[in-house]
Amino acid sequence: MTNGTSAVTEHSLALHSGDYVERYNSKPLARVKNLVPRMNLTRETRIADFACGNGMLLQAIGDNFASYDGVDFSPDFIAAANAWAERTGKQRYRFHCSDIRDFCARKPQAFDVAATLDFSEHIDDDLAVDIYAAIRQSLRPGGSLHLHTPNLDFFLERAKASGILRQFPEHIAVRNATQTADLLIKAGFDRSEIKTEIVPHYNVLKWLHPLSKLPGVGSHFSARLWVTAVA
């Protein structure tokens, strides 16, 4: 009999393999490239891309980094990431098929920047606290975590949460800004070092973003969260 932890891992791995990887490979690079300027990368930046998927962030940052380590637990994603990087002649990168916590334990204070792009919504609170605590330990003092995720306050996410619309099966824990900040605080980040911003959606829904400025109802049109936390 499989124990509970293994069962969850096997189910999650199944959701993030095969056809899911193929669908992810068709997503436009612009969805990540538009986020890169918010990371303030330089040629000296050592960056870790956690839940890296097919390595889209590596493709989006150009040559503006010292080293890049991508980490994902899905062998299919790591294979896709390595294939893409080889085709495009990327340099100064390594992909690791590993549990994030295990990887971070081997890399204390190793990175200037950590990224988790469209990842936190895939994990429940307890696991998220464990993972983000590990990520914090992998950052040098003063290093920064950048987190991008759907916003539970967005009207479409509210509709999914209430059962009106169908949620993606991989999205098991969509959170709002307060919930995301609370999670990071539990993981050891200082509240005063956490900054949360609202950013547009990456698809046609981005045209609704100006409505997020409306008084009273603006939060319903705030599609995505960008959270920065300093270690």
From TrEMBL:
Q: Does the keyword Transferase apply?
A: yes
| InterPro entries registered for this protein in UniProt | Methyltransf_25, SAM-dependent_MTases_sf
Q: Lineage of the native species?
A: Bacteria, Pseudomonadati, Pseudomonadota, Alphaproteobacteria, Sphingomonadales
For this entry, the protein name equals: Methyltransferase domain-containing protein
Q: Which GO terms describe its molecular function?
A: methyltransferase activity
Single biological process term from Gene Ontology:
methylation
- Which Pfam families does the protein's record reference? Methyltransf_25
Q: Which residues form a coiled coil?
A: none
